[in-house]
Amino acid sequence: MLEQYNNQPTVLGVYMILNITEYSEEPLHNQIAQQIWEKIQSGIINPGEALPSVRTLARTYHISIPAVNRAYANLVRAGIIQFYSKNAYFVTSLHNNSVAPTISQQYKEFTEKKRLKEELRGAAQILNDLLPQKLPKNDNFEISAYLEPSCTIGGDFYDFFSIDDTLFSIVIADACGKGIPAALLISQVQAILKIEAVGNGHIETTMKHLNSHIIRHTSAQNYITLFYGIFNVNTGILHYSNAGHHFPILLRTGGTFEMLPSTSLALGFIENEDFSHKSIQINKGDILLLYSDGVTDGHNSSGEEFGETRLKEILLKNNSKDTEEIVAALTAEIKQFNTISAFSDDKTIVVFKRIERSINFNKLKL
User: Fold this and answer.
1) For the residues of 187-238, what is the DSSP string, one character each?
2) Are domains 3-121 and 131-361 of this chain identical in fold?
3) Where are the alpha helices (DSSP H) in 25-99?
4) Are 231 and 167 in contact (CB under 8 A)?
5) Which residue has the higher pLDDT, 92 or 180?
6) Sequence spans of domains, the chain
7) Tens digit of pLDDT for each residue in 70-81?
8) CATH class for domain 131-361?
9) What is the pTM of this model?
10) What is 3-121's CATH number?
11) H-type helices in 51-159, by residue range?
12) From 11-20, 218-227, 289-298, 317-326, the region with the lowest mean pLDDT
């Protein structure tokens, strides 16, 4: 079997082979096989050289014997290595191997997929970094949020930021599609929104500029639903524009609900769309819930939709809690309900509550 090499295969130094990382999403046996193949291609491992035994390689790198066995078996099936003796394997000559081009193409595709996955993870991290990293602390309100993308990169985002000492912005949006195109659209909208909001503070102007940018600088199929509100911490008045987004739910302290309907089409449809705004009074103790369609569109095994009614019931049941607890209650119910479509769409929740501070007279110094 080894006569073509004249001598016994030279055993390769075991410390030259692998660079295993726990951060890779690839199965361990694929990492092993890929790295061995890459070293063969680059000439670090040459035809005729023997790889370490399965046990030796596993012991050296503190990895499981089955993982090394699977890696070696895959390389044998591909014609890259052959079984030698004492559970060792040697590298075959690929110069006259008819399967070499196929093997090369397979590993090229594998490497390309790996690169794309790493890029997606990087893009997802960038988008995550664009989200508010700290919850605002304020004597006038509480706010908490939750975002669960359906894949590595989702199409939802939320934001909240101060315009000045009295005005505070709340944003939730859902870009069409998923992946990198949606991520690029989100990052553009988020950046422009903050610049416009701090620069002019006028909702209509901000929405018009966002709409114009999407129409002029993205493809025709790109659009985004967006709710943009500006809350006055002194008066409790929320001025808002709802560009085709799901109607936010306002729970009053008396247990009644009000919806904040759309004021325009989604951003990116019509160049000269009229982005008028509305206003609503938010009283102390009132709770405003903003959400994306992934929250209400989920189905259980019976085909029932989660829907707005369940959302309202959970909100009413937990209205005495703080916003973080309300978000936790909502997400727990949603996950329990969505038995067949838990990852069908991105899920985003923002809970805003105007605080009704009580005075502890026992702590007052008279």
Assistant:
1) HHHHHHHHHHHHHT--HHHHHHHHHHHHHHHS-TT--EEEEEEEEETTT-EE
2) no
3) 28-42, 54-61, 65-77
4) yes
5) 92
6) 3-121, 131-361
7) 888 888 887 788
8) alpha beta
9) 0.67
10) 1.10.10.10
11) 54-61, 65-77, 100-130
12) 11-20
